[in-house]
Amino acid sequence: MRISRDKMLFVFFVLSFRLFMDTGLCTAVPTELRITTIKQEPYTISKGSQLEGFCMDLLSEVAKKVGFKYRVQLVKDGSYGRQDDNGNWNGMIGEVVRGEADLAIAPLTLTAAREKAVGMTKPFMQTGISILLRKDVSEESGLFDFMTPFTAETWIGILIAYLGTAASIFIVARLSPCEWSQPQSEENRFSLLHSLWYTAGALTLQGAGPHPRALSGRVICCSWWLFTVVLLACYFSNLSSSRSQESSQLMVKGFEDLANQDTIEYGCLAGSSTLAFFKNSNNPVYRRIFEHMERTKSLVSSMDEGVRRAREGHFAFIGESVSLDLAVARHCELVRAHEVIGNRGYSIATAFGSPFIKNLSVAILQLSEAGELAYLQSKWWASSCMADKARSSAGHLHSFKGMFLVLSLGLGLGALLAVLELTSKSRRSAGEQRKSCCTVLTEELSLRLRNINANTPQENVDKDKEKA
């Protein structure tokens, strides 16, 4: 009976131990892990004697969740990891394979070849392959590019100024007795339609008579003429500047456009997974791109070199979309093509068959679900490009505040003069008619602004009565 009980306790102990090991709770983690990485902004950058960046923040968060200490070292040969003809690996992958490092944390692309040599965690960032170019190479002239000298807010402001000026001329022409002295028998030359046409004619530097005779109307017209002269000068200056920046040689939108031209050079990072993608692809367009890069020897040795050549122009740099987005955030004259191919992810590399790779993957998933990875990416990919330099010449509304102010003062002064002219006439009429000035002024305003056909001469009305 005692022997059976001992056997049962032994079996229970063995099963419990296996279950405990399967859950990963007893994963053996070294007290201090050796971490290999490579300098690349913003993943890992130097700040004095310390390293910081996206990967360093990610490593810190993962270490807290898994529970290990670490020591970071830079890869000796400055490479990510490529397999030679003999099957040997260099770079960070080679250091992990040879046991010189326990983890490799960097923008390491998850590929089948690397998965066979080392253990790769769940991706901590998704990326793809895209094209980096100067904006004047990638952008195509639009149908309404003639409106680009001014922003949308400026165009709205100009429209409001046009309508406001036309309405002011219409109202002033009805109020001023110097412009319309006899409302009972005289036709008003400045109807609303004519006021709109007159203002539009001045905007295009084409006179549209008749012109105002009253001082109030002339003040408004002079303000509008000054406004239009400055406005047209700014428009043609900005239009000429924007046209001089555009390139008429080539427009590249994607990989097919890139493969079908021979005006600009293009290349990718030597020994990268991007190059391997084009090399192993069966797509005829991608094969032509690879053969062109091999034939012209247009590969670059580093990411910085590719970005520099793209900034100089006449070169398209093909690379990871996430890294290209960083270049766009740092250099306003660059843009990334919308087309993204070969979607893949960045992972942390460990020794093949590492017992704690699952814990690392779980930690990455937890950070992703908590929004920490998105926060880190927004932190390190923050754009330093405050304005689009390719459209910097576009006139913003705040640039024309002085013009709008002068026009507003002119409209206000014209309206004030029209009221003073009408008041002066009403005061003279009040003395002749022995009425109060306010009464005469009210009658004049009612006669000039009432919604009847005040333009019909009184003589015609009398004749119609006689005929009746």
Features:
single chain; 468 residues; alpha/beta; nine-stranded mixed beta sheet; two-stranded antiparallel sheet; 18 helices; 52% helix; elongated; disordered C terminus
Folded structure, characterized:
Mean pLDDT is 79; it is low at 19-29, 246-250, 387-393 and 451-468. This protein has 468 residues and is α/β, with parallel strands linked by helices. Helix 6 packs parallel to helix 16 and helix 8 (215-245) packs antiparallel against helix 16 (401-433). Strands 1, 4, 5, 6, 7, 8, 9, 10 and 11 form a 9-stranded mixed sheet that branches. A two-stranded antiparallel sheet has the order 2-3. The longest helix is centred in the last third of the chain and has 33 residues, at 401-433. The protein contains 18 helices and 11 strands. A hairpin with a 2-residue loop joins strand 2 and strand 3 (50-52). It starts with a helix and ends with a helix. It is elongated and about 125 Å long. 52% of the residues lie in helices and 13% in strands.
SSE sequence, one letter per element? HEEEHEHEHEEHHHHHEHHHEHEEHHHHH
Radius of gyration: 38 Å
Q: Approximately what portion of the residues adopt beta-strand conformation?
A: 5-15%
Structural class: alpha/beta
Through-space gap between termini: 137 Å
Number of helices: 18
Strand count, sense and barrel status of the largest sheet are: 9 strands, mixed
Broad shape: elongated
Percent of residues in helices:
40-55%
| Overall strand count | 11
Low-confidence runs (pLDDT<50, min 5 residues)? 19-29, 246-250, 387-393, 451-468
Give the mean pLDDT: 79
